[in-house]
Design brief:
This protein is an alpha+beta fold. The protein contains one helix and eight strands. The strands form two sheets. Strands 1-8-2-5 form a four-stranded mixed beta sheet, with no helix packed on it. A hairpin with a 2-residue loop joins strand 3 and strand 4.
Length: 166
C-alpha cells in the first residue's frame, strides 16, 4: 500500500515526541556523569609515586664508576635529603656498596669501584609523611658513568570526557 502524506506525517510527529523525552534524559545522564566524575576527582585521595630514569656513558680510563643525578618532585622542584643506595647482588642477597644523599640543590654524585656485574640502585624519598622507594637492577661496567634521576609523581583518580560530550 502506498504511503500517504498522513502516514509520513504521523511517523515524523512520533519521532519528535520520542525525541522530546529522550534528548533531555540523555543530557541529564551526561551531566550527572560529569558532575559525579568531578566530585570523585575532588574527594579522591591522591597517591605519590617515585619514577626513575637511568642512563650510562662510555667507560673512561681511571676505572672508577661515577653515579650522579637529581631528584625532583612533580613541579620540578628539587628534593633534598633523598637517599641513593647502591647494592651489589651476592648469592641473591643485596649488599650495600655505597650510600649517597641529595644536597640542597637536589643533586648527588659519588665515585666507587666495582668489579662490574649486576647492581641494584634504589632511590628513597621521604615526602609528606610517606617513604617512597623505587629500585632498578642494572649491569655496571668498570669505569662507566651512570646518571640516575628520580621524580616524585602524583596520581589522582581522574575521569576525562572529550569536550564533544559536554
Amino acid at each position: 500500500m502506498p504511503e500517504t502524506n498522513h502516514t509520513i506525517g504521523s511517523r515524523r510527529s512520533w519521532a519528535r515526541s520520542v525525541s522530546k523525552f529522550i534528548r533531555p534524559f540523555g543530557v541529564g545522564l551526561i551531566s550527572l556523569f560529569v558532575v559525579g566524575g568531578s566530585v570523585l576527582y575532588v574527594l579522591s585521595p591522591s597517591s605519590e609515586a617515585l619514577a626513575m630514569n637511568v642512563s650510562s656513558r662510555a667507560s673512561h680510563a681511571d676505572g672508577h664508576e661515577v653515579i650522579y643525578g637529581e631528584v625532583t618532585d612533580f613541579t620540578h622542584h628539587v628534593v633534598r635529603n633523598a637517599d641513593v643506595l647502591i647494592y651489589s647482588l651476592v648469592h641473591g642477597r643485596r649488599v650495600l656498596v655505597r650510600e649517597l644523599h641529595t644536597g640542597p640543590n637536589g643533586t648527588y654524585s659519588g665515585m666507587f669501584d666495582t668489579p662490574g656485574g649486576v647492581y641494584v640502585v634504589e632511590l628513597v624519598v621521604h615526602v609528606g609523611g610517606q617513604t617512597l622507594t623505587h629500585f632498578r637492577t642494572m649491569h655496571m661496567v668498570p669505569g662507566s658513568d651512570y646518571r640516575v634521576s628520580g621524580r616524585v609523581t602524583v596520581h589522582d583518580l581522574f575521569a576525562f570526557l572529550p569536550v564533544s560530550s559536554y
